[in-house]
Amino acid sequence: MDRIRIVGGRRLDGVIPISGAKNATLPLMIASLLTGETLTLDNVPRLADVVLLQRILGNHGVDVTVSGKRSGETADHGQTLHISAARIVDTTAPYELVSKMRASFWVLAPLVARMGQARVSMPGGCAIGTRPVDLLIMAMERLGARIDIDGGYVVARAPHGLKGAEIVFPKVTVGGTHTAIMAAVLADGTTVIENAAREPEIGDVADCLNKMGARISGAGTNRIVVEGVTRLNGARHAVLPDRIETGTYAMAVAMAGGEVLLQNARPELLQAALDALSNAGVSVTPTNQGIRIARNGAGLQPVEVTTAPFPSFPTDLQAQLMALMTRARGTSHIVETVFENRFMHVQELVRLGAHISLEGERATIEGVERLKGAQVMATDLRASVSLVIAALAAEGETIVNRVYHLDRGFERLEQKLSGVGAEVERLSA
Ligand code: EPZ
Known about the structure:
This protein is α/β, with parallel strands linked by helices. It has helices at 22-31, 48-59, 95-98, 108-115, 134-142, 174-184, 200-211, 243-256, 271-279, 318-325, 345-351, 381-393, 404-409, 413-418, and strands at residues 3-7, 12-17, 38-44, 63-66, 79-84, 92-93, 117-121, 146-150, 153-157, 166-168, 190-194, 215-217, 223-227, 235-238, 258-263, 283-287, 290-295, 304-307, 331-336, 355-359, 362-366, 371-372, 375-377, 394-395, 397-401, 423-427. The longest helix is centred in the middle third of the chain and has 14 residues, at 243-256.
C-alpha cells in the first residue's frame, strides 16, 4: 500500500488549483440513470471514488467515456465524462460494490424512478459512525415506492411510477435530499421537500437536472419544490469547485505559513470555514481568481467551532481544523454534531504530540509549541488529510499510511502541495 512522506517546516507559496467537487460529481454521475440520452460532465476530478462509481454504473449498463486532453489542457483541468444510460440492463446494486462507497446507495432513487424497481445493498456502517439510510427509505416510501428489506438488500418497487408528495425530513440529510429530488423529478405531480439540505452540491445537482428538463425550484433553501415531468434529456454541466478541498488547503497554508492563491475557489461555498480561519488570525482575501490565504509569522488564535449542516461549519473540515488548532496559542473547542463518531483522527494527532481530550461530541484542543513527526494512519479521507496538515508543521518526518483514503477524495494531493513548496512525496509499495 502506498504511503506519503512529509517533512515539516516548509512555507507554502504560490498557486494551488482547486478541482471539481467530489460530493457533487458522485450524485451528478448517478443522475445520468434518469435519462436515455448522454449526460456530459466537465471539471470532473480524477479520484478513486469516481472510478469506482464508473464501475458501479457500468454494472447497471451505463457507458462512461472519458474525453482525451485538448490542446492547452494540463493535469489541472478536470476530466470530461460522457455518460450514457441508454439501456439499463440490471437494477441490482450488489453488496460487493455498494459496501466500498456509501454514496453508491443513491442509485436507488433514479433506478426506481426510471425502471419502476431496484434492489440495492444496504451500505452498512463505516468509520465515521452508523450512518443509517432510514430517511432515504422514508422519502422513497412517501413518493409511493413499496420497500422490503431482503437479505441485506433494500428492494423498492413502484410498478406504476412514483407520485408527488410532501416529504418532511426530521433531520437534515444530504443523501436524503438527493434521493428525494432524484425520485421526484420523474414522479407524477408535485413534490415538496421540507427541511431539505442546503449544501451547495444539492444546488449543483438541481441545476444540472433542470438543464436535463427537470422542474426543480428552491434548491439551496430548506424548501425544495419539484414538479414531475415525463422524461429527461441529455445535457452538459460543469461540476462546481470543491469547497472541502478548498478549506483543506486553506488550513494547510494557515498551518505551514506562507501565501497561496486557491485558484477557482469560491468563498460563498465555505464562508463559515473562512470565518473560522479569519478568527484564528489567518488572512483570507477573495479575488477574482479564487481565494488568497496568507499567514506570516504571527501565531494562531484558538477558536470555538460547532459543525452543523450548511451554511454552518462543515463536518468534512472538522478534522483539518482540529489539526490546525493543535498549534494555536491557547485552548480551542470543536463540537461535532453531524456524525456521532467522527474523531478517529484524534489518537493519531496525539501521536504527533497534540494535546486533545474528548468528552462526548466535544473536543478540547490545547495548542502546543511543537509537533514531532511520526508514523500515522487514518480511517477516512478527511481524517487522513488532517494528518497531512499536522505533518506540515511537525518537526522531522511523518509517514501517513493507508494513502488510498486520500486518493478517494483529493486529486494529486502530493503534487499540489509540493508545487507550493511542501516537502511531500509518495512512497509506492
Ligand atoms: C454527505 O454524506 C457527504 N457525502 C459526506 O461527505 C458529508 O460528511 C455528509 O453529507 C454531511 O455533510 C457525499 O456527499 C457523497 P447525511 P451523507 O445524510 O449524505 C444522519 C466525505 O468525507 N442520517 O447528510 O451520507 C446521519 O447519520 C463524506 O466526503 C440518518 O439518521 O450524510 C448523519 O448523522 C463523508 N438517517 C446525518 O444524518 C438517514 O437516513 C447527516 O448525514 C440519513 C442520514
